[in-house]
Structures are given as C-alpha cells and as structure tokens.
Amino acid sequence: MSDKGEYRLDRIFKAPRSVVWRTWTDPELLARWYGPGVETIIHRFDLKPGGAWLNEMRWGEVADFSRMDFQEVTPENRLVWHHSSADANWNIVSNARMPDWPKTLLTTVTFTDEGGETNVCLTQLPMNASEAEVACFTQMMAGMSKGWGSGYAIIDEMLAELQAEG
C-alpha cells in the first residue's frame, strides 16, 4: 500500500492465462462474477483503449452505475481503466451512498503465467482525490478483498466449467 492508499490483490487461478483473460473480457462471463450477489448488467463493453465499459449493479429497486474507460488493453497481459461512479446517463459523479469515495480509481489488472496457472494482480489507486477521498478509500480497503474474493470464487467455478468444455 502506498501513501496514496493503493489497493492490491494478487490471486492465483488454476487455469491458463487465455481462459482467465476470457472471464475478464467476455461481457457474458464478466457479468456472472462482477458484483457477486447482485444482478450485473453490462450496457456497453468496448474493449479497446478509449472504449468504455458501462456497468449497472441492481439490488431490487436500487441501482449502482459505474463507468470504466479503458486506457490500455494488452490481450492476455494487462487491462488498465479509469473506474468511476456514474449516474444513470453515465456521467461521472460522486458516489451517492459514500460521498467521500473517490470519483475515479486507476485500475490495473495484470495476468502472469505461473506454471500452467495464472496470477492476476489487481491494483486500484484514487485519482485526483482529496484527502477525505483518500482517507475513505484507505479505510474501505480491508473490506474490498471480501467483495473481490467473492467474485473470484465465482471465477474459480467458471474456470472449472470452461476447462471442462475444452
């Protein structure tokens, strides 16, 4: 963790990098694990630098919108995006439920071969954040691994399915 509150999560998946990459870049697969326990709707997924991933997570009548603007896409190696809270029209806004949450996070995901398995390293860092936003992000980091971990458990199940399909 840096003084700016960098979140980092490394995880080994028991599958080749090409298969793990698919779970992050195929919108149908991504919607199955991203936002575990909620309905995830991917409105747009344009996987290229300058492209956008427009994501909605629903809990009954409550919706949370996120806009991810891809900065870098290096197939099977690296994804970099700006991850922002958004309104229903995909404008970047403050998070309605957590006003001190940073408006935008620099998110980097790298995929590395580990002897037939794949290490996924995810980092998130607040961008242009106030002291209050950095403090909020830093305070929430401990709980972030639970959310990502729940999604990663679903990826484990999906990888078993995908590899069984051949």
Strands of the largest sheet, in order across it? 1-7-6-5-4-3-2
Report the CATH architecture: 2-Layer Sandwich
Poorly predicted ranges: none
Structural class: alpha+beta
Topology readout:
Layout (H helix, E strand, L loop, with lengths): L6 E7 L3 H9 L1 H7 L5 E7 L6 E8 L2 E13 L3 E9 L17 E11 L2 E10 L4 H35 L1
Helix pairs in contact: 1-2
How would you describe the overall organization of this protein?
There is one protein chain. The protein has 166 residues and is an alpha+beta fold. It has one domain: Alpha-D-Glucose-1,6-Bisphosphate, Chain A, domain 4, CATH 3.30.530.20. 31% of the residues lie in helices and 39% in strands. The chain is built from three helices and seven strands; from the N terminus they run βααββββββα. Strands 1-7-6-5-4-3-2 form a seven-stranded antiparallel beta sheet. A hairpin with a 3-residue loop joins β4 and β5. The relative contact order is 0.22.
